[in-house]
Every structure is written in structure tokens, then in C-alpha cells.
Specification:
Layout (H helix, E strand, L loop, with lengths): L5 H8 L2 H10 L5 E2 H8 L3 H13 L3 E6 L2 E6 L2 H11 L5 H14 L10 E3 L2 E3 H13 L3 E4 L2 E4 L3 H8 L14 E4 L6 E4 L1 H12 L3 E3 L6 E3 L1 H11 L3 H6 L4
Antiparallel strand pairs: 1-3, 2-3, 4-5, 6-7, 8-9, 10-11
Helix pairs in contact: 2-3, 3-4
């Protein structure tokens, strides 16, 4: 049989518990069997069976550290495909949950719609607006499905101290990743990875326990407006056009 075995991938994605495990791993970090079992609300023994199937399908990989075995998404390409598949799924339940949380707490900054990790880069409304801001500044140029370094790329990278491969190498500086909730593109690849690490190191964003959502700090809002013209109102209102 010469056709790609999409049935293997489909079978691996077909179980809700395996889907929850993959969503937890889309945080970009590695987790133990017990942690993933807790996230999926299943027993560790059941999680082991699910992780074996995900591993055999090439969606996850595992590594041993000391006495523990950690599991993670198999790579950036897998994460990008999963994010793209997620964009085909309904998101009304996510919107309702976010609105409910905002009604209870009076805050809208801690939900996955606003900002989240997509493997090793920023997704959600913030990710889309960051891509638009980088494009407007001439840091990147988007041509069809490709992303290239813009006229301001080198100056921007050097000014912010980002470690990104030089343009023209074997690896592109960035790629387009279709955002699951916004249904528009954000950036993945080396530039986007460096931006996420920069955001963590400089205190723009913080992880939210128990979810891959990112909390944008007051410093983050100030820096986003200064560097990219991204206002808090635009983020909270969902204005990504």
C-alpha cells in the first residue's frame, strides 16, 4: 500500500482522552504519565495505553530523566499540524467557557483565546496580533504561505538580543501556523520561539497553572504597545483585523 496511512493518525486522534493528552502537551513542555493522566482525568494505567498509541502514531515521543519518563509532542511539525486540525473543530464551547470565567472573575486575561503556548511559540489573539505587528514594522514579509525576513529584521533581532538563525539558511526564520481559535495565522519557527522565550525572560507573560494559557503582565501590555502598537483594548476586544 503506497498511500499515506492517515487511518493510523485518525485512530490515534479518535479518543477524547488522547485528545486531552495532546492538548496538554501542546503547552510545549514534557509531562510524566501521572501528570497527563490527571489532566485527562483517567488512571495512570489507562494513560500508559493511550501514550503508547500516540507514540506509535508518531505524534509523541518520550525521554527518560532519572527515574521518570517524560512525554512530549514529537516536534514542531506535529504541533503545527495539530493546531491546524484544531482550527477545523468548533470553538463555541471555548468561547462560552471564557465568557463564563470572565463573568465570575471580572477578568478576561487568563483564557486560551487571549494568549497561549502553541508548542514553543505564542498563539491566540496575542499571537495573531504579534504577527501583524511584525509585518507592519517590516520585520517579516509574508508571501503566500512563506515568511521571509523583512528590511527591519536584522535591526529588530539585534536590538532585542534575539537568537535567531540568519536569513537564507536551510531553516526558514519563521513559518505560518493557522491559529486554532482566531482562524488566522500566527508565527511558528525560530523567530516565534525566540519571541516566546523573550516574553518569559522579560516578564511580559507568565504561565497559568493547569492550562497552556498565558497571563499578560502589566509590563507585557506596556511593551506590546511600545514595540508593536498592540493595545490592551485590542487584545481584550479581539480586534485582529
Amino acid at each position: 500500500m503506497t498511500e499515506p496511512r492517515l487511518d493510523i493518525i485518525g485512530a490515534a486522534l479518535a479518543d477524547p482522552s488522547r485528545s486531552r493528552i495532546l492538548c496538554e502537551l501542546m503547552d510545549g513542555r514534557a509531562f510524566t504519565n501521572k501528570e497527563l493522566a490527571c489532566a485527562a482525568n483517567i488512571s495512570p494505567q489507562t494513560a500508559t495505553v493511550h501514550l503508547r498509541q500516540l507514540n506509535q502514531a508518531g505524534l509523541t515521543t518520550s525521554l527518560k530523566s532519572g527515574r521518570h519518563i517524560f512525554h512530549r509532542i514529537a516536534g514542531e511539525e506535529v504541533a503545527r499540524v495539530l493546531e491546524g486540525l484544531a482550527s477545523l473543530s468548533p470553538t463555541d464551547h471555548v468561547t462560552r467557557a471564557a465568557r463564563s470565567a470572565k463573568a465570575r472573575t471580572g477578568q478576561g486575561g487568563q483564557d486560551v483565546l487571549l494568549a497561549r503556548c502553541c508548542y514553543n511559540h505564542i498563539a491566540g489573539r496575542l499571537g495573531v496580533l504579534l504577527m501583524q505587528g511584525l509585518t507592519a514594522k517590516g520585520v517579516v514579509l509574508v508571501s503566500g504561505d512563506s515568511v521571509h525576513a523583512g528590511p527591519a529584521f536584522q535591526d529588530f533581532v539585534q536590538a532585542q538580543g534575539l537568537e535567531v538563525p540568519k536569513p537564507g539558511g536551510a531553516q526558514p526564520i519563521a513559518r505560518l501556523c493557522l491559529d486554532w481559535t482566531e482562524r488566522k495565522h500566527h508565527l511558528s519557527g525560530p523567530l516565534a520561539t525566540a519571541l516566546l522565550q523573550w516574553a518569559f525572560d522579560d516578564g511580559w507573560v507568565q504561565r497559568v497553572t493547569g492550562t497552556r494559557a498565558l497571563l499578560i503582565t502589566s509590563r507585557g501590555y506596556d511593551k506590546l504597545q511600545d514595540l508593536f502598537g498592540i493595545t490592551q483594548d485590542a487584545l481584550q476586544s479581539g480586534a485582529t483585523d
